[in-house]
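seq:
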Amino acid sequence: MDKYKGIFPALVTPYTNKGEIHEASLRKIVRMNLEKGVKGFYVNGSTAETFLLHMEERKRLIDIVTDEAKGKATIIYHVGSIRTDDSVEMAQYGEKVGVDAISAIPPFYYQFGFEEITKYYQTIIESVKVPMILYNFPTNSGVKISMDHFYQLLENERIIGVKHTSMNLFELERFKNKGKILFNGHDEIFLAGLTMGADGGIGSTYNLMSEKFIQIYNLYYENKLKEARKIQIEANNVIEALIKVGVNQGIKYGLEKMGISCNGCREPFKRLNEDDMRYLDQIFKENHLNL
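struct:
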């Protein structure tokens, strides 16, 4: 399971000025992060604006990433959708193009019961042979699964891990105690997540500064916690600024400064204004981002 340990950028979706997927830019983001030393990529997650994309666009993203990175990195394909049939279709497509694992947010909006959520995951899992990584993001999905219910899900041997995007580190430790792969999902508590048993992280800001999280990861395993905390603080200064202006928009602005065209986010996401950009420029500089 070592191929699931380390730093995994949750890739953004760059667009052309016509609003289409910008293939050349996505390939640049993948290559840049491979050069920095990331372990893999999480494709079509929240950072990709996945629920603002058409099904064919979600497939196109995995086409591009597998073509660029298969054999060089571990590829996890998020297939979550409110429609089980859509998730199954994407899971089967991901298996066809050679992903290492699939992942899925639980079905949302209608306040589905645990029996319904279990059936959703079971149907997806049974449609393919690749393993499943659960995606726990209660604040955004609105789906809160109790720990006892999570334990029941984790009894399924085809479910190999959890992407835990929650500030609840007690839950992270309890899930890890079940012997599964655990990804820390909130970048701002990455170091804390490692101390509680996370095997690595899947993060949005890794697109922009994966080198910082690779440093934190390596320093932690070298038992250099003071040095690791210093890098985490720098990363958090950037994250705090991104939260103020819009995380996805701010990440894409940083990538633009690197010469990678992204053309903002899809509506209803807002655009950054000049004040936002000047503010980010200052924070990036103060926290040693090489943009």
